[in-house]
Amino acid sequence: MEIIRKLQDMQSRAVDMHQQGKTIAFVPTMGFLHKGHLSLMREGRKRGDILVVSIFVNPAQFGPNEDFDKYPKSFEQDADAAKKEGVDILFNPCKEELYPERYQTYVNVEKLQNYLCGVSRPLHFRGVATVVTKLFNIVKADAAIFGEKDYQQLVVIRQMALDLNLDIEIKGCPIVREPDGVAMSSRNSYLSEKDRKSAVCLYQALNEAKKLVKEGVKKSSEIIMTASALIRSYPGTEIDYISIFDPETLEEIESVEELSRMAMAVRLGETRLIDNILIDPRKKGSRA
Ligand code: PAF
pTM above 0.90? Predict the structure, then answer.
């Protein structure tokens, strides 16, 4: 596995590979890799001749009071894990090259960035869309793979690729979970033992919602109320949002009539966890 740090080296390697008729699959990450990232790499292996993974903790997607400075890092372990997954190039650019002095261009996915996590993290998706566009241009990928855990991010990036006519396939992959159901996330490492126990409430609440819909409950407010009560029954939890929405527009829906998505963000101490689930009212039971 080759490790590339300079933007120009990455760009010229990408040009070479295309000239040789090879396709490039790309998995952008912020490092501190876990099994969720590794599943994206496995998907990437299938989608291109060359697999490029980037590690870059993007300052533009963190708010002023967020965890940019303490975001966990483990480059050596990440490089070992990537190598084991058959990654060809690990791209690890530096902040100074990606955002030099006088940097001033940002990508705004005008509507989608404002819903769900965008309410409490107003500049987050602008930062994500910007860095992902830059990385796409540098890596010159034919396909890019993202996890469904960051469902809004996936929808934002799909829209961005469509709107900006980017010639790249965007592939979403299922959430990878710990044995107790907690969605894998680099931020789980921040949790105290007590908060880690409470973290199961997100997936439990999502499953409870799914069960209600299966029983025939349609009203979003009723489903959200039950999910909220379940989350509040766990110590240390503070709900940021719970929403049931259209999976493409991210607009909230009042009644679950079609295939929908439910997402939530819950704070446990200093840590903000997110999770989501597909809700399918067509798989119905009996309750009206
Ligand atoms: O999902 C992430 O890890 C980041 O948001 C991404 C896509 C690598 C952009 O910084």
Answer: yes
